[in-house]
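User: Sequence for Alpha/beta hydrolase below. Tokens please.
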Amino acid sequence: MATSRIDRRSLPAGARIDRWAAPDGWEHRTFDWPAEGPARGSILFQGGRGDIFEKYLESFAHWHAAGWNVTSFDWRGQGGSGRLTPAKNCGHIDDYADYVDDLRHFWSHWVKANPGPHVAMGHSMGGHLVLRGLVEGVIAPDVAVLVAPMLGFKPGIFGRFAERAARFLGGLGNPARPAWKGNEKPYTTETRASLLTHDPDRYADEIWWQTHDPSILTGPPSWRWVIEGFRSMRELAADPRLAQMRVPVLMLIAEYDGLIDGKAALVLAPSLPDLHLVTFGKESAHEILREADPVRDRALGEIDAFLAKRAPQA
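Assistant: Structure tokens for Alpha/beta hydrolase:
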């Protein structure tokens, strides 16, 4: 499969950035790229913690070229969707249910405005939240794609006591304060770049966008984000509705993911009744869709085949 070649550092022709207000008035930054001509269908793609949709323009271009409408929005409290704490660039949330509510309300109007089949995609935290939305019944796509879904944190130095340690440390001060400094992963000598992708040029794209517009840069998470993340993942893994969720799911997992625990996704996967699982080895870091061409092209090929089979054009 030929790799998409676009200018990854400019907004593509025909795409637009806008604002969407949740029912409580909170404004989210949105991206929308309608298909040229009759649409093959519509994709809502949601990124991970601290993500911006500009990081995925290359993948969006691939799907857009195949005739899909492509939409995304920055999650509340990160990217271009404002901050929930006065701490500079800190990604904070009081409760992951707030994310799910935003997804619920955005989906309800988006699905009416865009033709099917409707596809929900999520990377990392976005994958976690899309799966929660599916299990809780707040979204009902024709199919879903979860890319390196955040279903477990790396245990780190606290091992199986990590959640308890987060609650203790977060409680020592304002839990809206940053949980650590610059890196994506605390207590590590690995660079942020090596945790995310083996492709230095694609990694540099994110830095370019953040330098071009510093307002979209999100730094470390708050302690509350970490604490609520542990709770949300633990409760989702134990949710009996996983086995009742009938939406077909494609799950792409990087088994040697250095940022999140890919093994947790492998443990949860058998709970889903209609799942196609694809794994990557040491060749892939966390950002599968922004990896070197062999990994990225394989991932896009798997997604294309899944959509062709499970979400055929009406």
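The chain has one domain: 16-310.
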